[in-house]
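pasting for ref. prot 1 ->
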Amino acid sequence: MASGASTSARLWTRVLRRQLPTSLWGRALLIIVLPIALMQVAVTWAFFEAHWETVTARLSEGLAGDVAWAVDSYLDEPTPEHLVEITDQAQIMQLSVALREGGTLPTRDRPAFFVALDRSLDNALSDRLDPQPFWFDTTRYPNHVEIQVQVEAGVLRFIAPRERAFATRGHIFILWLGGATILLTAIAIVFIRNQVRAIERLADAAEAFGKGEEDVAFKPHGAREVRRAATAFLSMRERIQRYIDQRTILLASVSHDLRTPLTRLKLELALAEPSTRTDAMSRDLSEMEHMIDEYLAFAEGEVGELPVTVDVTALAETAAADARRLGADVLLELESGLDLIARFGALRRALTNLVDNAASHGRAVRISSRTLKSGGVEIAVEDDGPGIEPDSYDEAFMPFSRLDPSRNQNRKGVGLGLAIARDLVRSHGGDITLDRSDLGGLKAVIRLPR
């Protein structure tokens, strides 16, 4: 039994968590508004229970007493003359009395919106008029209450001001309470919104930096803790940017220093007598130059390029044309009108690396693109080559990894093609994943935010 109750409690807890807001804005607002609303409900309930209903009951008892007095007086002497005297005396008590001879009580009730009002008056009249039949209506007249009592001659009809039966100022208290709740909620919304906006701007700046963009207008603001986090982010961004710049300058310098002796060696080989040895040396120099270019591309990652609107269809068609020149049979399955904000050169290099890799290891290549449900863009490059074993997918992205047993990859290069491609895509806030293609080979999927 205890186990069933525990399971039910966990189920209700999961249901409640699904209904609660997931954003910081929603949760902060709930933390402020929910206690205010509960407090207002408790105060309203206490007011009606301890004050309003008590005062209403006392007023109803007073009115019922006056009606009972008038009925008893008329029953003691049911003459027109005595009724006139009763009417005169009742006017002093703000009570109108009239006899409808031969009449009967209505059979249709008209309950009030607040049932507690009718209940208080009904209890008071039942106690004072028993056993006389009666009927009352609190809704027909806005400012008055009608009470009818059955007597032998007909029906005694009483009209009394509403404030004689009920505490009519209770709604003013509710209006003030509701107004205060709305005012406090509005103030809470303004303050919470300002604090959450500071966190949202920090998140936007971090996301922009992850895509290779820089939000120069971003400045720390908001609460002290949020400003501290923003200041730490700016310091981290400066350190990372300084490291990237230093790495780029270092690799550019190394590349420049190496190109000079390579150029001299190529010149000396060009002037030397042609032979099998000079041909081999020339091929080695070309391979070294290609390695240097890949090292530099891996280090730079197109850092200095500015983001622009990139037409994915045109980009894929250009990569396909380059692959066709290598002799590959390229099939395009592209979604029309697809574009995104990216650094054109970096994205072109990433896609070209994937397409060239597919064309080098397969005869047929397929490039497809589509819009993701999340709003991002997906570009897939597939081939019909030997593919890669699933447990080697992570290793394929490691710099200088060749995977010779599976695809004889990077026979000319140094194993940086996939590493450079993923580095460039991740600099845009996206990623590259590998999978088995329907064509039988490898499938590389680029997913980028828009």
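and prot 2 ->
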Amino acid sequence: MDTLQNLDRPGVLGHPGYRSFVASRVFSSIGFQSVTVAMGWMIYDQTHSAFYLGLVGLCQFLPMVILTFVVGHVADRFDRRRIGLACQLVEALTALVLAVAVWQHWIGPAGILAAVAVMGAATAFERPTMAALLPNIVPPSLLQVAIATSTSMMQTAFIIGPSLGGLLYGLNPVAPFAVSAMLYVIASSNVISIRVEREQPSSREPVTLSSVFAGVSFIKSRPVMLGTISLDLFAVLLGGATALLPIFARDILHAGPWGLGLLRASPAIGALVMSIWLARRPLQTDVGKKMLFAVLIFGVATVVFALSSNILLSVAALFVVGASDTVSVVVRSSLVQLLTPDAMRGRVNAVNSLFIGTSNQLGEFESGMLASALGPVLTGIVGGVGTIVVVLLWMRLFPDLTRVKTLKG
């Protein structure tokens, strides 16, 4: 803990409630990453199909689309800690059911996809709700550091989770699901102990069509926020190669489950290094230009990964992918929190989460479908080049992005 405290100069880790908040998110993320790697390997092992890998992303994405606007209203009207608790308990139960199903040998592709959909629904509630909770725990002056510190710990979870999932699956296919169920229980015990500095103002706005879509209207009225969120959407939608990692691990790099775990962990290692750097040295000037440049590097690194047939070069490219993406994550998250009043944070974070989910889960579906037609290598090249084009286009469509100088509240 002393090491972590040294990374956190303003002392956000000593802030009441923040430790419990981070612990809950970290244990939940380790569980999710472990389950995701195990399900991805299992479904590809059963089907040998890029199409089914794409369906995994689609089954995560659809519940998010359906529930997004319900999530926002719920997060603004009810205690966000209780919502997080309910989600983590549902995820724990799903992981436990998967463990039993694998143990009894009655799980097939349809069952895996159904479990993915349940996890997707729970995640659709958990992520935006927990994100909206953070500004109630720390003051605005600590928000960028709190986000960067939280991101560094989350990336540690993204390193541990995939590696743990791959290792446990190699030892026993039941193990990653059983361990993940326990991790979700630990996460839920932390979320109920979170102490808030400022009580959440409960929204009593009548549930109307206008209020449901208020988050969309709010984002549209702020070009900087819209540009930042949509840039991340299209960049990761085009450049995300996560869904294809089982193919690269097995068929191109000729590695087993351990190789898949290493590839899944590599972007998280890069993100961890960058988030530690940002926690120690928060962005002070020209943050808009730095974010755009980081996304450009993200696209270039994606092309390098797609062309690589050497696992060390692939790991290095994914490291750069994770590091560059983290700059965008911190800038986007900070802007969303600082520019949004607390009474609307649930709805705005729900829309933001939908954009993130669209780029990740729908991006995995798009990559799976495209890889079925073009192959994984050409799919990665097209995605990386597309990301570069989007950055250049966004510099013209959203010139205010280049004028963002600071993230201070």
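DSSP finds 16 helices and no strands in the chain.
The mean pLDDT is 80.
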